[in-house]
Each structure stands twice: as structure tokens, then as C-alpha cells.
Design brief:
Elements: E1 6-8, E2 14-16, E3 20-21, H1 29-41, E4 45-47, H2 55-65, E5 73-78, H3 85-99, E6 104-109, H4 119-131, E7 135-141, H5 145-154, E8 161-165, H6 173-181, E9 185-189, H7 202-211, H8 215-225, E10 229-230, H9 237-244, H10 253-260
Parallel strand pairs: 3-4, 4-5, 5-6, 6-7, 7-8, 8-9, 9-10
Antiparallel strand pairs: 1-2
Helix pairs in contact: 1-2, 2-3, 3-4, 7-8
């Protein structure tokens, strides 16, 4: 399989554009075997979160892989309940202990929780951890332009990544353009949509036949062509392999344009402006 390309974040750090997400993978053998198999196949980026409750399993798999730490890119996210300056610092230590790492490549605020209104103080704690060189890069997840503008106004560090729901039925055009203006990469969670509705789209199916690929591979390749970081989740070896096998073809401009207009503004996750689950 062709190699995974890197993107350069706004602080100069290189990040693989493709990785494995471990949302809803059970702690223990399931997450450990999935991460280990992905690493054996050539994945180098793993995305977890405190809220997934599987950081320890990720850490064990990373250690068992025997791959040099500097070759890996590990992301985790702050649990919503831990937002706030002091609680963020404690939560980071707890995540690092579970992961068994000396440093983290990327730390994300999982949700803005605007009604809770702690995300700016939380970001200030992230900045401290970043300046203390405990994290190579810091970013956010599920932030809308208004949330990002507050970070710009009240702090001096711009997030490198905004990880959001992104797939052909939710192309987030306005948000993506806003982030691009501020040199923030979009990272797609659930790029294939949970439940896989997008994989049954007739136009995607036609393209899959044209390129000799699966519908999932076409959608993931579209992410790559759009300059989006993508982290599909799977616990099945065949699917983990299939998802990565997207770097030996390119979608032509006409097909990219067809996928671009499939947007329905259809969310499968919560609205970041109203979600406040601690």
C-alpha cells in the first residue's frame, strides 16, 4: 500500500493525514488488537479520547507494537466533565498515565459546551501544557466559528486542528472556509457516517465501480482530496486494511464536484452550539 502523506500544522508539526479512530472500541482486547493491527499495517496516527474510556488499551497496543515513539502520532481529548483550568491539568496527567506516554502529539478540547462556558479557561490550560512541551500540538473538536473567535480574542495560540463531523452529507463548507482562513486543518470524525448511510448512495456506488474501489474507499479518498485529515474507525482487520488502501488512486475533478454537492447538512451527532453533556 502506498504511504500515508503528512500535513504541516500551523506550528510546523507534521501529522499523518490518515489514521485510526477508536470511538466506541471496548477497553481491553478489542481496542488493543485493533490498534496493534493498524500499526502493523502501516497506520501511524491513533485518535482516542478520555471519554472513550480506552486510553489504557491504546497505550498498551502502542507499547506492544515496538514502533519508535517518534514515528507515532497519538491524539487524545479532554473529557467534557474536566473542563476548567485546574481540572484540565489534572485530567491531562491522568490521560498520560493511562496512555503510558511521556508526551502527547495532539490534545483536543472534545466539545465547546458553550452554556457551560469553560472552554477559554480550558484552552489556557492547553496553552500551558503546550508551552511546557508536554504536548506537541493543541487543537479543538466540534468548535464553530464563534467559539474559535473567542479563543483568538482571549488567547495568543491558534488551534492546529478542528475535529468535526464531516462527510459527504455534511460538508461544513462555511466552517471549513473559516478554518482555512486561520490556517486550521479540519479533521473528520465519522467520515463514513455512523451506520454507513453514505455508503449506499448511488452516485458513490457508481464511482466505486469506476475506480475498482469500495464506496468507503471513494469517500475516504474524497476526504484526502479535500485536504481533510480523516480517522475512520474499524475493529475488523479486513476493513482496517481496506480503509488505508486509498493512496494508489485519485478522484477526477468531475467526481469530486459530484460528491461536493451531495451535502444535506445532515448531522448524526449533536449540534455543537447546544450540546452541553458533561
Amino acid at each position: 500500500m502506498a504511504g500515508i502523506p503528512n500535513i504541516k500544522l500551523n506550528n510546523g508539526v507534521l501529522m499523518p493525514q490518515f489514521g485510526l479512530g477508536v470511538f466506541k472500541m471496548d477497553e481491553g482486547p478489542e481496542v488493543e488488537s485493533s490498534v496493534l493491527k493498524a500499526l502493523e499495517l502501516g497506520y501511524r496516527s491513533i485518535d482516542t479520547a478520555a471519554g472513550y474510556q480506552n486510553e489504557a488499551g491504546v497505550g498498551r497496543a502502542v507499547k506492544a507494537s515496538g514502533i519508535k515513539r517518534e514515528e507515532l502520532f497519538i491524539t487524545t481529548k479532554l473529557a467534557n466533565r474536566d473542563q476548567g483550568y485546574d481540572s484540565t491539568l489534572k485530567a491531562f496527567d491522568a490521560s498520560m498515565a493511562l496512555l503510558g506516554l511521556d508526551y502527547l502529539d495532539l490534545y483536543l478540547i472534545h466539545w465547546p459546551l458553550p452554556l457551560v462556558n469553560k472552554y477559554v479557561d480550558t484552552w489556557k490550560a492547553f496553552i500551558k501544557l503546550y508551552k511546557d512541551k508536554r504536548i506537541r500540538s493543541i487543537g479543538v473538536s466540534n468548535f464553530e466559528p464563534a467559539h474559535l473567535e473567542r479563543l483568538f480574542a482571549e488567547t495568543d495560540v491558534v488551534p492546529v486542528i478542528n475535529q468535526v463531523e464531516y462527510h459527504p452529507y455534511l460538508t461544513q463548507t462555511t466552517l471549513k472556509a473559516f478554518c482555512a482562513k486561520h490556517d486550521i486543518f479540519i479533521e473528520a470524525w465519522s467520515p463514513l457516517m455512523r451506520g454507513g448511510d453514505i455508503l449506499n448512495d448511488a452516485k458513490i456506488g457508481t464511482m466505486a465501480q469506476k475506480y475498482g474501489k469500495t464506496a468507503a474507499q471513494v469517500v475516504l479518498r474524497w476526504n484526502i482530496e479535500k485536504g481533510v485529515v480523516t480517522i475512520p474507525k474499524s475493529v475488523h482487520e479486513a476493513r482496517i486494511r481496506e480503509n488505508m488502501n486509498i493512496f494508489d488512486f485519485e478522484l477526477d475533478a468531475d467526481d469530486i464536484a459530484v460528491i461536493d454537492v451531495l451535502n444535506k447538512n445532515l448531522r448524526i451527532g449533536p449540534d455543537p452550539n447546544t450540546f452541553n453533556n458533561n
